[in-house]
Design a protein that fits this description.
The chain is of the alpha+beta class and 167 residues long. It has five helices and eight strands, in the order H-E-H-H-E-H-E-E-E-E-E-H-E. The relative contact order is 0.10.
Length: 167
């Protein structure tokens, strides 16, 4: 079972746990706790195995920090590769999610998986220094066009409107 910060917060510093109590406190099974002890979590050997909270909690937090892989400004996290990578061709796109937040997305250079990362307006200008960025949030719409585009397959040729000066 994956170790999360929530599991580490459930451990009290001033308490010594039996193996089963520690498993209950962290929301894991006893086998997982035994594996943690084999991997180096401090415990007092004997019958029953005792786990001091003041030693186990920092160990759990250290394990969580060791697993983290923070992304640089120009990187996105690929869930397939489990690594932070730069987008393929150094190209990214900025879109809005349904909450109106800016999201950078790009393809993984290794496996072509679509990757996403929330970014702030301040980060976008810095990202533009490292990557080719297309901002799809400000795409043009038909409301500002003088003549709507015509489907060429329908046979009507496209003519430019004649704009009179002064109007």
């Amino acid at each position: 079972m994956r170790l999360s910060a929530q599991r580490a917060r459930r451990v009290h510093l001033h308490r010594t746990y039996k193996l089963a109590e520690f498993a209950l406190a962290t929301g894991t099974c006893r086998g997982t706790v035994r594996n943690w002890i084999k991997r180096g979590m401090p415990a007092i050997a004997g019958k029953p195995t005792l786990i001091p909270g003041r030693l186990a909690k920092p160990w759990l937090i250290e394990q969580i920090k060791a697993r983290k892989k923070p992304c640089a400004v120009d990187e996105l996290f690929c869930f397939a590769c489990q690594e932070p990578v730069r987008p393929a061709f150094n190209e990214a796109e900025i879109v809005e999610n349904r909450h109106g937040e800016a999201v950078m997305r790009g393809l993984c250079a290794t496996c072509s998986t679509l990757m996403h990362k929330r970014v702030s307006e301040a980060q976008i200008s810095e990202i533009c220094l490292h990557l080719i960025v297309q901002d799809a949030r400000r795409s043009s719409t038909l409301t500002g066009c003088l003549v709507p585009p015509v489907n060429c397959a329908l046979g009507a040729p496209h003519e430019e409107p004649k704009v009179q000066p002064g109007k």
